[in-house]
């Protein structure tokens, strides 16, 4: 992003012990100014112009502010522009906290002109009423529901503990504030490793001192110009000093919010989530001194005409003492439609867990969501239900606000629902040649060598492709071998041992692969065994039982595997049965009925499975029928026509399927043809050429497809 530097002054706060001192100029009776000027290189007596509400001003802030002038904000509400000294900013924040029992309460600028211009350009009214989307829909439970049990309280506590103990403070003008940003960036980079669609960087502004904001961007697949934001603020502030250094652990305010966002990132990316919309995670700098980091970022998005469709703020998530509700939704300076969406998210995903919600009026500029509102974007703010009594003090520790992070776990679940339902999900369907999230069908005529593609299993989108009349060339597998998000067709010449790849199922993009002249080598399966984002070729020799893996389909990168000499053991499927983003190899003994899984495609991770000694049962296919992120095994009985699925590859979790007594019906393919994240079963009749589809494996949803009477046409998978 192009960074637009706000003309805000880098200022430091001065600790004032004892009574509030109203001072528009002159000396420094506490003697801190000289020390601060020397250590930070800024003048604590510099003027700052704040914008605050008339009510806050009248409530006692007027004792700190000079040159006050009444104005109106974008919502038509009474506000005041006034001057304050830099060293009084932390005192101002503490005063608002103690008098109004809330946080924040003002924007800060270097000049009065900038403050007035901010009000002139304020888009609060538009933001509160704006419909960024025609509707905010809740229809992605297949993504969200499996996430929620994965949130770990211990991980959130570890992050809060680090941020609140490794740094004396995270104050924006101090080196420790900068170090906290550096640590967080490194942590987020680690969570997004090996993801080309994920980037992490700094956003600076001239008013943010030494501390940059940290932003992770997960690029949307199909709607990248629509942006979803989840944020918290990284800085901390206190009125206490030890040996001239601010003592501001800031565990609840707002290490809890940053830790919550970090856990949301971990859970979402660990499951390989790819959103349709771009999702940005933000840790704002300099929130405690006038929302400077978020203001700079929101203003930049406004200048770039960015389409931000929703912002969720997480500022203080871990204190619930004495409350009858679990969290509260801020009702003012937020967007009506987005608030309703957040309420529905809570009721859909958190209420069934026994959690309850309330409503809270936060006041003017109480947290970073206000920056987005002022920039014209829809924002929402969910906050802990009880105001933590030790904000902005040395006692803001996890021991006092927790002592566990149980409350923050609930906020993480809400934020996961927010990004899952607003960011949506790009479902990576198998056999998807055009990356539209829907599986395609690759047909090959074993008599003529003709080849066809049915996009999304629809004959109306039939696309003829090049014929391969030399029948020694066999299509032996389909997967994404080049990692571009589009599946490729792997060909092998049964006479010469040559191998070719049709990228995206197109002969025009044919790529020769290495030759295996010994035609005893057969492709047993394709899968991403190393979580590299591209499929590997799992080879097995038909005579010797030797096994090797071509990493990424590259004959120059060969990994040997343990030999399986007995031909009775056969590879009957490849899939990610445990949802760890590594594909596994499914083996079945055709004589004994024993079953094994090689996790990650290696015998070192061999896992014995429940035996099925009736060898009339065969593995018909592999796919994620229930959309939980783990592949299931579909069994068919070749004597009775019975069918059953082992969910996540476990015999203990079976899903019944209807029997098809006519054994001429063959399970021809498994794919997500409607793009709903659940695998569908494609049936083909071996004699009549009839075709049917069972969405999610349910015969009750049966769809009759176009008939292909010539039974020489077979489906490659």
UniProtKB/TrEMBL annotation:
Entry annotated with the keyword Signal: yes
A Pfam family that the UniProt record links to this protein: Peptidase_M28
Cleavable signal peptide: 1-22
InterPro entries: FG-GAP (IPR013517), Integrin_alpha_N (IPR028994), Peptidase_M28 (IPR007484)
Ranges annotated as spanning the membrane: none
Domain Peptidase M28: start-end pairs: 214-413
Protein keywords: Signal
UniProt-recorded name of the protein: M20/M25/M40 family metallo-hydrolase
Organism in which the protein naturally occurs: Agrilutibacter solisilvae
């Amino acid at each position: 992003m192009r960074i637009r530097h706000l003309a805000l002054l880098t200022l430091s706060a001065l600790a004032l012990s004892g009574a509030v001192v109203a001072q528009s100029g002159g000396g420094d009776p506490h003697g801190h100014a000289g020390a601060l000027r020397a250590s930070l290189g800024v003048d604590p007596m510099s003027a700052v112009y704040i914008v605050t509400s008339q009510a806050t001003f009248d409530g006692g802030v007027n004792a700190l502010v000079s040159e006050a002038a009444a104005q109106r904000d974008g919502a038509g509400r009474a506000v005041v522009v006034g001057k304050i000294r830099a060293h009084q900013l932390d005192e101002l924040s503490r005063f608002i906290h103690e008098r109004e029992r809330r946080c924040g309460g003002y924007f800060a600028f270097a000049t009065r002109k900038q403050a007035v211009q901010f009000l002139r350009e304020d888009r609060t009214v538009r933001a509160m009423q704006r419909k960024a989307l025609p509707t905010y829909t809740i229809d992605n439970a297949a993504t969200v529901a499996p996430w929620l049990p994965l949130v770990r309280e211990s991980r959130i506590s570890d992050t809060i503990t680090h941020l609140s103990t490794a740094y004396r403070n995270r104050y924006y003008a101090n080196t420790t504030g900068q170090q906290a940003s550096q640590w967080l960036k490194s942590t987020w980079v680690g969570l997004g490793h090996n993801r080309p669609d994920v980037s992490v960087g700094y956003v600076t502004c001239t008013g943010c001192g030494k501390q940059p904001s940290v932003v992770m961007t997960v690029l949307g697949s199909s709607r990248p110009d629509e942006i979803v934001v989840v944020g918290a603020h990284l800085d901390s502030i206190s009125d206490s000093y030890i040996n001239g250094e601010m003592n501001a652990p800031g565990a609840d305010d707002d290490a809890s919010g940053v830790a919550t966002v970090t856990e949301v990132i971990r859970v979402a990316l660990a499951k390989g989530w790819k959103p349709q919309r771009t999702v940005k995670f933000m840790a704002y700098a300099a929130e405690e001194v006038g929302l400077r980091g978020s203001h700079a970022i929101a203003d930049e998005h406004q200048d770039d005409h960015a389409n931000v469709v929703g912002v969720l703020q997480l500022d203080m998530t871990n204190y619930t003492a004495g409350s009858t509700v679990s969290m509260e939704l801020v009702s003012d300076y937020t967007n009506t439609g987005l608030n309703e969406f957040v309420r529905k998210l809570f009721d859909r995903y958190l209420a069934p867990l026994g959690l309850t919600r309330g409503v809270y009026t936060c006041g003017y500029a109480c947290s970073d969501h206000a920056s987005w509102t002022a920039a014209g974007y829809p924002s929402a703010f969910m906050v802990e239900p009880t105001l933590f009594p030790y904000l902005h003090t040395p006692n803001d520790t996890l021991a006092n606000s927790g002592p566990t992070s149980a409350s923050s776990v609930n906020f993480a679940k809400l934020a996961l629902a927010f990004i899952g339902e607003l960011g949506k999900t790009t479902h990576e369907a198998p056999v998807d040649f055009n990356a539209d999230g829907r599986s395609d069908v690759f047909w090959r005529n074993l008599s003529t060598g003709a080849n066809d593609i049915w996009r999304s299993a629809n004959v109306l989108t039939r696309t003829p492709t090049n014929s391969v009349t030399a029948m020694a060339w066999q299509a032996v597998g389909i997967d994404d071998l080049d990692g571009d998000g589009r599946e490729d067709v792997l060909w092998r010449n049964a006479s010469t041992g040559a191998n070719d790849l049709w990228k995206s199922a197109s002969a025009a993009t044919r790529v020769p692969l290495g030759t295996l002249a010994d035609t005893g080598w057969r492709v047993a399966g394709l899968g991403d065994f190393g979580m590299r984002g591209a499929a590997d070729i799992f080879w097995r020799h038909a005579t010797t039982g030797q096994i090797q893996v071509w990493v990424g389909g590259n004959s120059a990168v060969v990994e040997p595997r343990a030999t399986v000499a007995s031909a009775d053991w056969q590879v009957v499927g490849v899939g990610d049965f445990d949802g760890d983003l590594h594909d596994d190899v499914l083996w079945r003994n055709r004589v004994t009925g024993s079953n094994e899984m090689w996790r990650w495609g290696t015998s070192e991770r061999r896992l014995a499975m429940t035996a099925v000694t009736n060898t009339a049962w065969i593995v018909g296919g592999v796919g994620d029928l229930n959309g939980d992120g783990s592949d299931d095994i579909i069994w068919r009985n070749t004597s009775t026509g019975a069918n059953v699925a082992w969910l996540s590859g476990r015999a203990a979790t079976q899903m019944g399927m209807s029997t098809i007594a006519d054994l001429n019906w063959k399970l021809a393919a498994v794919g997500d043809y409607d793009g709903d994240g659940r695998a569908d079963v494609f049936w083909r009749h071996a004699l009549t050429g009839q075709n049917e589809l069972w969405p999610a494996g349910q015969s009750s949803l049966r769809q009759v497809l176009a008939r292909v009477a010539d039974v020489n046409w077979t489906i490659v998978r």
